[in-house]
Amino acid sequence: MNLDKLKTVGLDQLAELQAISRQTFAETFADDNSAADLAEYLDKAYAGEKLTAELADDNSEFLFIEHNQQVAGYLKLNWNEAQTEVQGPDALEVERIYLLADYQRLGLGRQLLEYAFDRAEKLGKTRVWLGVWEHNQKALAFYQKLGFTAFSDHVFQLGEDAQRDILMEKTL
Known about the structure:
Elements: E1 4-8, H1 14-29, H2 35-45, H3 48-56, E2 60-67, E3 70-79, E4 91-99, H4 108-122, E5 127-133, H5 137-145, E6 149-158, E7 161-171
Parallel strand pairs: 4-5
Antiparallel strand pairs: 1-2, 2-3, 3-4, 5-7, 6-7
Protein name: Putative N-acetyltransferase, GNAT family
Keywords: Acyltransferase, Transferase
Pfam families: Acetyltransf_1
């Protein structure tokens, strides 16, 4: 029997968060980006000091999801001023949702998003939003299946490469 578990990530798990962040992002995007751009992004986005500050923010939350007692992925939520682009007081952002390749297609992503929807409601939010790379067809289809719709876009800088993210939202 598979027992999936969500666990809040604390500062004492910084090294594990950093490792899974780098691994899942690389697994997801390495084939479509230059090694130099990827390395620059990983070093900046997942630097220990940056993750430490994000973990300390009262308007953000990180969770690990475990599958068969192994960390399979993680989720990062932001609200209020912690949102990467403030979408108003009624919004909660899913900034990061990543699963290790071996744990995809097991329903774990859906569990993470269901947690995000519940968390948003507990915080009095009426919308959940996220950004997804325009070329990540698998993720776009997944979010659409869960009721997200596109509402805007923005530039996501990956090293020297300016990429387009589609902003999607779901009203609760």
